[in-house]
Specification:
Nuclear Transport Factor 2, Chain: A; 27% helix; globular
Length: 120
């Protein structure tokens, strides 16, 4: 079983690498067979190649993210909220739920970005 510290460190790395648009390094956090629902109900990416393509699409988009709430952990699951800052938009929140395998690789991620959850 993973420790809370391991999972929190992985989520922190995810946020840092996403904010820096470091797709290759970000993909090192994922299991080969991971599933990404981002945004949930709109787009599902299955497997390393589809998830990598999703992140690569946004490499040139002027946005950044930062952790907004503490990471909450139960077993191999974690949840947190990020502040999303994008040029031309007001800041908003995205709530992300992660599932990790026993090697601390992301098995699934479900993102719930809400542009109406404005952050002042």
């Amino acid at each position: 079983m993973l420790s809370r510290n391991e999972i929190c460190a992985a989520v922190d790395s995810y946020v840092t690498l996403l904010a820096a648009h470091k797709t290759d390094a970000l993909m090192e956090l994922f299991h080969q067979g991971a599933v990404q629902h981002e945004p949930v109900g709109v787009r599902t990416n299955r497997g390393f190649d589809e998830i990598r393509a999703f992140f690569a699409e946004s490499e040139d988009t002027p946005f950044t993210v930062s952790l907004l709430t503490p990471v909450t952990v139960v077993g191999n699951f974690a949840a947190m909220q990020m502040r999303v800052q994008r040029e031309g938009l007001e800041d908003f929140a995205s709530t992300d739920l992660f599932e990790f395998d026993d090697n601390c690789k992301i098995l699934s991620i479900t993102a719930v970005p809400d542009v109406k959850a404005l952050i002042s």
